Amino acid sequence: MADVRPYPGAPRWVKVSGIVIGALVLLLAIIVFTGVGGGDHGPGRHASPGEAGGHGGGTRGGLPMLLGVLVLGGVALNWGWLVNRALPRLGRSSIVRRWPLWRRTARVPMTMTSGLRKFVLAAHVTSSVGTLGAVTVFLALAVVGLTSQDAQMVRAVYIANGLIAWYIILPLILAALLIGVVQSLSTPWGLFRHYWVLAKLLLTIVTIYVLLNQMDGISYIAGVAAETTLSSADLRGLRNSLWNHAGGGLVVLLVLVGLSIYKPRGMTRYGWRKQHEQREASH
Ligand code: HEM
What is the rounded distance in angstroms from the CA atom of residue 15 to the CA atom of residue 231? Predict the structure, then answer.
């Protein structure tokens, strides 16, 4: 029988990311549960008095859900470390050791022909880096919308941002997620085998979630701009929220590109076991 090397644990970058995610979760939890920052989060909260009602209601409860995604992300990324160090007792239980629960049915990833793999990769890079470009344009327009003194320019900017968000950013990022998942499952990378792929999956899902929460506000301000001119004080909170979120999204997208290019080493416990099983099968 082949020698089974013990799982070396999660690499340092994963542990550091876990700590950062933990700190963010804590911060968000404080904001949500103490009501610092006005309680409700979403477009309605940023709108001027009298405009707050009637839209953005769907975001109620959004932050707790985001917190949940972040907690799950932190736990998933640091599972090996948690089992080995933080939960040594729990780690001995058979249920925990059997993670992930679907391992017995997990299959070896399909491999694509080199031509097809290149084609899918080209589609993935086009859609994902296209998202980054579109978010950059959105951010630039959002800043112009806040700073320009030209009323017609301000109207044009918010109308354009509504179109960019619905017809470019949202479809492109959904395509990047879909194609990313397909190519992960169809190449030796796998979806849950390497920490960098898992991190991309979680970050992309969180980004899409935040974007969907913003869509209401983006449409609302585009609608107002289409009907009337905006003074510099109108919908100030909502207009600030547009560039804040676009800036944050841009940073996350840059991290995603960095993860994709550098592909930092580190296999999940699941990936480690799968690699071992494949080696055994090929002997
Ligand atoms: C908007 C978010 C994303 C961005 C900006 C992005 C960016 C990129 C880039 C630039 C590459 C090319 C890297 C190279 O080959 O050197 C790449 C490859 C890859 N991406 Fe993404 N990606 C995103 C989302 C995802 C998601 C959600 C997944 C799946 C969980 C994923 C999985 C992969 C995989 C497995 C590769 C390597 C493919 C191969 O070698 O054939 N990506 N990504």
Answer: 47
